[in-house]
Amino acid sequence: MDGPGLVRRGAAAVLAAAVCGWLSTLAPSAGRAEPVAVQVVREVPPEPEPKPPPVPEVDCARAKCVALTFDDGPVPGTAELLDVLDARGVRATFFVVGEQAAEHPELVRREHLAGHEIGNHSYTHADLGAASKRRVVEELRKTQDAVRRATGFTPVLLRPPYGSMSGTLTREARRTGLSQVLWSVDPQDWSDRDSGSVERRVVEGARPGAVVLMHDIHGSTVDAVPDIIDRLREDGYVFVTVSQLFDGRLAPGEEYVERKSGQPQGLP
């Protein structure tokens, strides 16, 4: 056989051997499927949405009930006040300014989840008694929305800034489902930033059924609260929210100052 023929047959043999060798690397998987790791994913139920603790039953027709209320917040210092109230097992009512609630929704949510009551104090701390109908509607609505976004809860109480009211405000409060809550004890903590004076005026002015006005935007007020609570508690007072004070029987649009003679009492 001539030389070129031998060369061609030799090259073919080398190629065939190479192909056989490559196929042999595939042989283990040619006849069976390789095992595939399967990851089992179990659905984890979502954490239940936290809720405020149950409202304790208090008979304010018999007990010496008093409602501590705080206006104009929330502000960063409100967190310290919440710590004080939590440590002493006291529930209060916070009348929040809507723009502050929008800026600090986490504090509004904390108030709500701690069992405190949250009321509407307008959106910009406006003089609602002197405002136009359009302005009143906007101030109330925007605050309702801010609290609802933060808590899922819609307020049923309104404290008009400065205690300023009008027929227009009363009609819009009624339409919005808001009872108007004023106060019967005012320590004037906004003018006298002295915790001792605030404490003395609250303790001396307290009486069964009283609604106490304070402001959590003032550090001096926050500093006065522990001693206010301790002294009133020593005198037999029970701390309740505004709605508890009036047995939850507050009519939208009506004005309330304090509870008298053991029964829910509004203004004449």
TrEMBL record:
SUPFAM superfamilies: Glycoside hydrolase/deacetylase. Keywords: Hydrolase, Metal-binding. Pfam families: Polysacc_deac_1 (PF01522). Residues 64-240 form the NodB homology domain. It comes from the Bacteria. This is Peptidoglycan/xylan/chitin deacetylase (PgdA/CDA1 family). The lineage of its organism: Bacteria, Bacillati, Actinomycetota, Actinomycetes, Streptosporangiales. PANTHER family: CHITIN DEACETYLASE 1-RELATED, GLYCOSYL TRANSFERASE-RELATED.
